Amino acid sequence: MHSAESTFPGIDANGGYAELLKTSERAVVKLQTTLSPKDVAPYADAGLTAYRAAKKASRHLLPRQFAVVIGAGGSGHIGIQVLRALSAATIIVVDRSPAALELAKQLGSDYNIMADSTALEEIRALTHGKGPEAVIDFVGEGSTISEGFAMTRNAGYYYAVGYGGELRIPTMDLITTEKTIVGNLVGTYPELVELIGSSRSWPGSPYDAGIQACGCKSSIAGFKGSKSKGARRADSVNWIIRAFMHAATANDYLRSWEMAFTSPPTTISQLILLGRQPTSASLMYLERCQFCL
Fold first, then answer.
1. Considering its fold, how many domains does the chain have in total?
2. Domain check: are 283 and 241 in the same one?
3. Is 72 in the same domain as 170?
4. What is the rounded distance in angstroms from the CA atom of residue 118 to the CA atom of residue 14?
5. Residues 6+ apart with CB under 8 A from 236
6. Do 162 and 234 reside in the same domain of the chain?
7. CATH of the domain at 145
8. Which helix (H) or strand (E) holds 135?
């Protein structure tokens, strides 16, 4: 969560794969007796991220306006529910998975579009040729960035939630279209309290919440095969890799790779190709296994 001196284990500090985490009473949210910790655990990360972005969008979305949600995965399916609860806008969901689109429909989306070569044309038609007032991109990779920004109507808002890609825009385009680009990083403590309190009235809760962060091979296999609702294969594997790159010890690193993949990377170049500079833990692992450095 946002704070003056915050750190993110697994992102800008070691310990993303630690079994225990020291925190303070200030960071604890009291749960109602009807809520189980395992059922709302995803709200502290994926849920809070989705809530923050959707709440920002709801502040300017009016009835008969449009909001496009790109990606109905782990965060996206929560974002759909938040938009439905906080705004009267028409919600359009774009995803490449039929199962994800069906889930989006159950959670309150008005239109569901398959992410293919005709998606932009369908969105333009639904929005009367002008584009949506808000686009919330929960993917942030591949073509979703350029297409998400392109479909945003003039003076509209493009919310970047997912990451991994790149957005390049001529300054003249920003001036002439007056589009606003908004970044989103998790959320604040008050927003988490709001999220936990309001989630009881939603039609759906986070899917697959029972899968532990250090889950078994069958859970990883479910992610890879896109069998888990609310999680796409690419996003799941990317998050797994990010956690591995910040394992606290060489043993944690080895255990992580053995759990998810048949074989770990064997060279520094492979680590860099995966998008992360080698950490001390990964170097220790490579040295111990006598792989090529």
1. 2
2. yes
3. yes
4. 43
5. 74, 223, 224, 228
6. no
7. 3.40.50.720
8. strand 134-137
Q: Is residue 48 part of a domain?
A: yes
Asked if the structure places residue 103 within a domain, the reply is yes
**156 phi-psi bin (left φ>0, alpha ψ -120 to 50, beta other):** beta
Query: Which H or E run contains 111?
Result: strand 111-114
Residue at token pair 């890879």: 224
How far apart CA 191 and CA 179 sit, in angstroms, is: 26
Dihedral sign from CA coordinates of 227, 228, 230, 235: negative
Domain assignment of residue 257, yes or no? yes
Question: Tens of pLDDT along the chain (293 residues)?
Answer: 666 667 777 777 787 778 787 777 777 888 888 778 877 888 888 899 999 999 999 999 999 999 999 999 889 999 999 999 999 999 999 999 999 999 999 999 999 999 999 999 999 999 999 999 999 999 999 999 999 999 999 999 999 999 889 999 999 999 999 999 999 988 888 898 888 887 666 665 554 433 333 344 444 455 445 555 554 433 443 444 444 444 444 444 445 444 444 444 444 444 444 444 445 544 554 444 443 33
Residues 49 and 73: their CA atoms lie apart, in Å, by: 13
Q: What is the pLDDT of residue 222?
A: 53
Alpha-carbon distances of 102 from 127, 132, 143, 200, 201, rounded to whole Å: 21, 21, 23, 21, 20
Q: Are residues 44 and 34 in contact, defined by beta-carbon separation less than 8 angstroms?
A: no
**Domain membership of residue 255 as a residue range:** 217-288
Instruction: Name the one residue in this structure whose structure tokens are 């929960």.
Output: 138
Tokens at 20, concatenated: 């225990």
Say yes or no: 276 and 170 in one domain: no
Residue pair 152/158 in contact (Cβ under 8 Å)? The answer is: yes
Q: Are residues 249 and 192 in the same domain?
A: no
Same domain, 148 and 89: yes
